[in-house]
Amino acid sequence: MEMQAGRWRVRLGQEAGAALALRARLFRAGGTDRDAFDAGALHLTVEGPDGPAACARLTVQDGPAALRGYTAQSYDLTRFAAAFARLVEVGRIGFAPGPLDPDVPRLLLAAMARLVVAEQAAVLYGCASFPADGTGMARLRGRAAPEGWRPGPKAPETVALPDRPGPLPPLLRSWLALGAGVSDHAVRDRDLGTMHVFTALPVAAIPPARAAALTGLLDAA
């Protein structure tokens, strides 16, 4: 998929060069961020005149495959994988340094919505990253996913959600507004120097009018 939306070009496909270049800047101080999960994924970028402004990695899965994905390294997804037959795992979300045009996270979400429709997926999910001290996680109080599919603890460094105020990551803020739920605990990620929570957005939770508006961002481009 490749579409123009104003000054932004949205790309989604197997070619990972632009996404990996931005990930290297954001996560590895210029070194490679490629890992074993990239080969089977689709790579999403929103690019402007100055290059990639945002990126994400999307992996279409069935339930059993979710148990072998990136997120399953940190969370027990047994109940979650049994609850959804078709899933899209979202990872390595990043935004270029500097002022963030609000259209950029909206276009990322619209491209994800387009993929969900094309693949008839029932849920988007992944790890939402915060600063290493958990700043912003106070806003997740009362947002726990339903117990029937909420993930269990798995990672060695599992902690209670810190009660620390602060802003939410922009894409997570959008997911929560659409009906997403999160884990009841957080995980310290020593590799990336962050803390993260499991986050999932069931398609059934999204109001139909909001879903139509999302895909319409690209339809109108």
TrEMBL record:
Its EC number is 2.3.1.-. This is GNAT family N-acyltransferase. Gene3D superfamilies: 3.40.630.30. SUPFAM superfamilies: Acyl-CoA N-acyltransferases (Nat) (SSF55729). One of its GO terms (molecular function) is acyltransferase activity. It comes from Jannaschia ovalis. It comes from the Bacteria. Keywords: Acyltransferase, Transferase. It is an enzyme of class 2 (transferase). InterPro entries: Acyl_CoA_acyltransferase.
